[in-house]
Each structure stands twice: as C-alpha cells, then as structure tokens.
Structure prediction request, 187 residues.
Amino acid sequence: MKTHINQVISLQHVDNQILYNRALTQTGMAAFRLGKVTESHEILNDICQNSKYKELLAQKFSSLQEKSSEYEAEEKRRQIPFHMTINLQVLDCIHLITSMLIEIPSFAQHQFTMHKNVASKNFKRLIDYYDQRAFNLAAEQYRDNIVLAARALNKSDWELAIQNIFNISFIARLPEFESGILQQNLV
Prediction:
C-alpha cells in the first residue's frame, strides 16, 4: 500500500519534514538489510539525490549567508543530538550499492542503444570520476570498493563484485552479514 504523503510533506511543518525524512531513511536502510534492493533504492533515492540531504535529516546547519538570529536559533533547536544521528557514510554506501545493483544490469541490457536510463546521478558521477583518473590504486574507501565491484559486475564476475562489497567495513559489520541473510539475498 502506497500513500501520497511524499506529495504533501513539503506543506507540513519543518519538524514533521525532518521526522519523515529520518523515518524514510531508516526504512530504506532496513529494506537493504532485508535484501530488498529495488525498494531500498526507491526509498533512499529521494533523500540521497538531494544535495542538502544533511539538512533534510537535521544533521547540519543550512548554508544561507543571511540568517536572522531567530532562524539560527530555530535551526539549532532542530539539530539531532549526536547519539541519534544517522551515519551518512553508511547511508551513502547503501545508496551507491543499490544504485550499482540496478544500474549495471540496465547498462548491460541497453549497452548498444541510445536510450539509457540513469538510476542514480551520484553513482553515474562516481563511475565517471573514476573513469577519468589516469590510474587507480588499491581500494582505500568504500567508494573505491563500490567502483571495483561495479567493474567486476560489468564483466559478469559476480563473485569478485560480492567480495569487493563485503570488503567494505560498514557491510561486514552488519548483523545480517554475520548471520548470512544479506549474503544469501545478494547472491
């Protein structure tokens, strides 16, 4: 059952928008942990594609130059305490992994056609950035592992792709990884 709350949330009070965005983010991350890649990507795409997603989750102040003291005080009041923040690196990593798992098969299917749908602009930018680099060293960050996994998946080497995904420390520490649920759903 789908609702149309995403169409009316922009008309609500800012506190309600923040709660909605945080709940939506947690739902998308939970869907990923259950192995529901498409659902997770659909949910997280709206948040992660926005350049101000830290502000949407109340984890950063807005970058307005001219702020009144009242607006600044209201914004400070809205900030989420540190112990309640959502790890933005994990959020970005999950979004990029789901984008990769949707984008690479789509790319392979439409490789020789002009019509190519882009599932995620962030993932497309990441791949383009790595393609423009003269040479790439060993994977140091989660983004490096995702690019290596995408390249392996593009060559139909899904075992190497899974290995690169599970080399990401965020993923390896998930309880679902340790119990094997995530491995079974991704393989």
